[in-house]
Amino acid sequence: MRNKAKSSATATMVRLLEHARYEVLPTSSVEDSVLKHVGTEVQVTVTASPSKGLEATLDLAERLTGHGYTVVPHLAARMVRDRAELSEICDRLTGKGIARVFVPAGDADPPGGYPDALSMLEDLAGLGRPFEHVGITGYPESHPTISDDLTIQSMWDKRRYATHVVSNLTFDPEVLTAWVQRMRKRGITMPLLLGIPGPVDRTKLLAMATKIGVGESTRFLAKHKGTFARLAAPGGFTGERFLEKVAPALSPPEMLVEGLHVFTFNQVAATEAWRRRLLEQLTAKAGPSR
């Protein structure tokens, strides 16, 4: 029985790694890095930050789409001026064949015409649901400004407008699995993409924080100082150990965990090398029966 459970967990890890997508920030060098190191079978998501504006996100999404990638631009609700601009964005993206978006609330302060993700999702529905796939954020750990009950309720409210949930970073396997179980018990049945960080070099991570923009970087570091500490600590967090610990609980089909959303912090080459290496190790471990 133990061997069967272990085999199931290994198969789950393989499946998640095979269905991984990479999150990148729209910097000047990331396009070349993606082209050099990542095959077009891997989806790429492009973040949005107030310091760079949505144009940087949309422009990179269009260019990568032109190179043959399936791209998911982040449409941060608080960065969109009004429904008219939202309509223009939809026409622009669908005109390039982009059928997937991710809709977080975002950190723009003050916001434009949308104070939160739900209000913009409602307008997307009013515009005819132009995108085939719409992702929303899930928070396994407490949000800095929103209670846990409200974040679960928010997913429930947004379920009519979204097709899947992307979990924010967490480093606690028990917290993650308890959150997924709670979400399913509440009747939220959208598939989940599990958010995890890729392998991160400390020096490059700090350099990336400064590239986000001074104001944005300050907010990011303030909100995620624990994230940086865990990633940068010698012998600290690793994706392998995290996946090994969560895979048994996430293996049942009713958990509906369909893949990974990997926060690369633009360390694209290292992330893809890590994913391929781990896939090779797990496939060898699974043996010829797989």
**Structural class by sheet pairing and helices:** alpha/beta
The CATH architecture name reads Alpha-Beta Barrel
Widest beta sheet: strand line-up: 3-2-1-8-7-6-5-4
In DSSP terms, counting alpha (H) and pi (I) runs of 4 or more, how many helices? 12
Quick one: overall form?
Answer: globular
- Distance N to C terminus: 18 Å
**Strand element count:** 8
Rg, rounded, reads 19 Å
**Uncertain residue ranges:** 212-218
Largest sheet, described in full?
A: 8 strands, parallel
Q: What fraction of residues sit in β-strands?
A: 5-15%
CATH topology (fold) name: TIM Barrel
Helix residue percentage: 40-55%
Mean pLDDT: 86
The helix/strand order is HEHEHEHEHEHEHEHHHHEH
Number of separate domains = 1
Name of the CATH first level: Alpha Beta
SSE diagram, text form:
Blueprint: H1 2-18, E1 20-24, H2 30-37, E2 43-46, H3 53-66, E3 71-73, H4 83-95, E4 100-102, H5 117-126, E5 133-138, H6 148-158, E6 164-167, H7 173-185, E7 192-197, H8 202-211, H9 214-223, H10 225-232, H11 239-250, E8 257-263, H12 268-286
Parallel strand pairs: 1-2, 1-8, 2-3, 4-5, 5-6, 6-7, 7-8
Helix pairs in contact: 1-11, 1-12, 7-11
